[in-house]
Amino acid sequence: MVEAVRQAKKDSSSFGQPIVGIINAYNRFSRIAAIISTLIGTYVFLSWAFDIREITTIAHDWPSMKVNSSIAFIFAGLSLLLLLPNDVRSKRNLTGTLFGLICALIGLMTLAEEISGRDFGIDQLILQDTLPTLYGRPGRMSPVTALCILLLGIALSQMNTKKQLIKRIRGVLAIIVAVTSFFIILLFTYGEPVLPLGLTKYTQMAFHTAGLLFLLSLGVLFSRHEDIEIIGHLALRTPGALLLRRTLPTIILTFLLIGWLRSYGQHAGLFGIAFGYSLSMVSFTGIVISLIFIIAKKLDNSEKEKLVLVEKLVQEEIHRKYMSNIGTLVEHSLDAVVGMTSKGDIMDWNKTAELIFGREKSEAIGHNLANLIIPSKYREAHNSGLDQFLNTGVGPILNKRVELSALRRDRREFPIELSVIPIKEKQDFVFYAFIRDISDRKNFEERQKALIEEEHNARLAAELSMNMRDDFLSIAAHELRTPITPIVIQLQLLEKELRKDTEITSMKHMLLKWTERSRKEIDRLLRITEYLLEVSRISGGRLLLNLEEVNLSKIVQLQIENQRQTSFRTGSELHTRIEPNVVGHWDAPRLESIVGTLLENAIKYGEGSPIDIELETKEGSAILLVQDHGIGISKHNQQKIFEKFGRASSVKNYGGFGLGLYISSEVVKAHGGFISVKSSPMEGSTFQVVLPLGLQK
Amino acid sequence: MDGQNEKAKFKSILIIEDEKAIQEVLKDAIELEGYNVSTADNGQEGLNILPRMPTPCLILLDLMMPVMNGWQFAEAISKDMVLATIPIVIVTAYGDRAGLIPSKGVLKKPVDLDTLLNVVKKWCNGGSCPTG
After folding, report:
1. Per-residue confidence (pLDDT) for residue A638, from 0 to 100
2. What predicted TM-score, i.e. pTM, was given to this entire model?
3. Given Cys at both, which of A34, A442, A651, B74 links B101, Cβ 3.0 to 4.6 Å?
């Protein structure tokens, strides 16, 4: 792609410029023409001087070159030789111009003689030439020769003119001479130079005269190639000029050859005039058509090449624009983009790279990347990784995300996320890295980690303190029992002693009442310690059920009987509907505790309202309902009451640890059942216990 | 003294309990039934007393005690052919931890008087007592 552009640029810049080699060839031709003219002129002049006629005529019956003509050619040749370098300031110019004028003067004088009919004596001025000519006077050149020499002399005398018009005229004069002399040469070629009929008697010219005139006129034209457009154009670096260079000599030579062949055939008696013309015309036509076809084809090809080139240029422009857009995107990428050569030098450095590394692009480009931004601890790994990739094509960190650290301008390290992509470029590699400063993220992660650890420690501490509390509860409960033991036994001993005698005094009666009251309080104390123990067992996962066949109906009835006195005191009527013999596998003491808790609560929070107690079996479960119509429990508190130390009412109004329902719920769950409550404030609560009958753990 | 108490005469019971108040009240309650009661404050003392007293028909053993606890005491006497035959009833607040000892029963503190006396009667009046 880039090659096409380079070639096109070169072509366009040199388009229309002359090709130096051709200009040099022009000058060489002019110099040789001048030298040949001088030499032949001199040679012919000497032939006249030594009377060697063969040289002056070349062929026996051809016209001879006259003495004056030879002198004119010597001057004309020298003039052209001197004026050849187009240097206005040269001293040789004067001599050259003078020689040109001498040449013109010879032609002019001869023409003047011819036109005036007088003899100025110039014909025999230098050497005697008494040979009769086919026409005119002996020793005098023909009028055509004289005219040509005059025109050539004028052209030579104006070789250094600066005026455009004169330059143009100079060119035209040279053309006239060239065409005339070419015409004469053709006459010789076609073998009709000597017939003194009609016009031709005025066009008598020696063959070498015509040749020298042709050479010199071309010499003038080629040495001043700007005069006539076609000559200048021939030297240009254009396809047209190239065609011209190729076809022009072909056409000229072909015409000469065909003309000569026609003439030769006619003279040899092979065919007549009409046949000869027809043959040459057919040949001309064929050749011209061929040439035109070649030209047309060349034109088409060049047009095609041009179109291909234009297409290429358009593609290149699109690609260039695309690359430029990509470049802009990279430059403004949120990530730092850094390019590195296979030698490890930085070759690209975008704006974000300037920002995060604190270095201007100019400070980074061309520097060794490892030394500039890689911390010393990674430098060795970077260099060996690069070597490894260049040798094996496998790189440890290529094409994936890696977290490392990098150096800022102040040599401080900061965490980065990095991905490196190798790009093959001809036989070499370049590497592009996308780099993200992850300091903020790292800080955030560390803070989060610290927070999580803190929270974890706090939880451990809480768990530890909870375990300590459970242990404490357990120990406290056991230790409380120790002092209770002697009290219980002594009260029992006392009671036993008091009842020994059948005679009951009023004092004895009082003592019995007191011991009984003490027993009850001790029982309460024991129940509390039992609660604490249960809680510590549940919390420690040590709640083991002692399952046996239990008649729940009896337990419920017994508990109702136990509570009847209390309910009587508060005014609550107990309405029961107990299905007899509801039997299952349960832990009996614990069921007693659950039923007791529910009844106690109903009486306590029922505030004198009637209490309904129902027990039945349904779908393999025992279902116990205890319903009061007291203060009720708000929705918010309904879940709370089954939690440890959870209570719906204030401890100021109602005593208790808030453990009864918690323990009940956990024990029911341990039996595979569940306990639930339906309640509205001021309407009362209904507790439902569902206990599977089967052998459940 | 009624007949039961008469039968209980000469029969010995050993109470091993570090808590003085419990030790004494148990002693009182059982002696009121007519048994000879020896006491020890820990397992080691119990081991010391056993050879110097008539072989007891029952040992009431606390578990948590200083110097030598109940588990260690039970382990120690289980190695003596004669002593290993004496029935042991454990009296403890930690009822759920008594399982490892080959005992004839567990009395959970606080001990109910009637339960205690029934246990004593069961092991000491049933004729299985060596002195009985």
Report:
1. 85
2. 0.44
3. B74
